[in-house]
Amino acid sequence: MNAVYHRSYEEREPIEVRINYDELVILSFPGPDRSIKTEDFEAGRSVSRRYRNRRIGEFLKELNLTEGRSTGVPKILKAMAANGSPAPLFETDDDRLSFVIRLPRNPLSLAPAVSGGDVAGEVTGEVTGEVERLLRAVVGEMSRQQIQSALGLKGEDHFRTAYLKPALIANVIEMTLPDKPRSSKQRYRLTPQGQRWLDTHPDVAR
After folding, report:
1. CATH class of the domain whose range is 108-200
2. What's the pLDDT at 49?
């Protein structure tokens, strides 16, 4: 939305979105207004003294796709941080002819994909505080809703992003139906690695 809103429609070059192995790259023309410094973007301060495409901005605002209050860049920074991803990179040239935003992939995506089997017999990712809480909540085979309830969590998206996916990537829990991840009969259980991690990390809170 930022690229659509802030690009120059006097330029022939289209917006480019490149999905690479290491990052997602968005390229648009021209670069940001000279009143905004590159370090302002990195700090989440991107308030321009001049605005492009006010009517397009008003249209996007009516569609609830933008707020029109210079909150786009802070939202990008917040979303990347909440996802545990590296900070985005903002690049432009001295003449402000182009603007590039690089969104690096999450380091956890480097871990081998988990299909329910033993990956070298080890935990393959970081056991965060959220993953630890999930491990201690799983008893036998439980549905996603049952685990969420045991943790006292309501938001499904947050649960999947912060708890479930990292636990699967770390190979400490597994799906009972790995070939049908969205099945209503899907259940989750500890892997041998997950149980071994619990055995070697007693719950000091108890």
Report:
1. mainly alpha
2. 56
The model's pTM is 0.46
**Residues of each domain in the chain carrying CATH 1.10.10:** 108-200
In the chain, ranges of CATH 3.30.565.60 domains: 2-105
For residue 121, give both structure tokens. 């017999």
Taking the C-alpha atoms of residue 41 and residue 89, their distance in angstroms, rounded to an integer, is: 9
Q: Does domain 2-105 have CATH number 3.20.20.100?
A: no
- The predicted model gives 134-154 an average pLDDT of 94
Angstrom distance (rounded) from CA 161 to CA 91:
28
Q: What DSSP string runs through 24-58?
A: EEEEESS---TTS-HHHHHTT----SS-S-HHHHH
* pLDDT confidence of residue 51: 67
Please check the confidence at residue 187 and state whether its pLDDT lies above 90.
yes
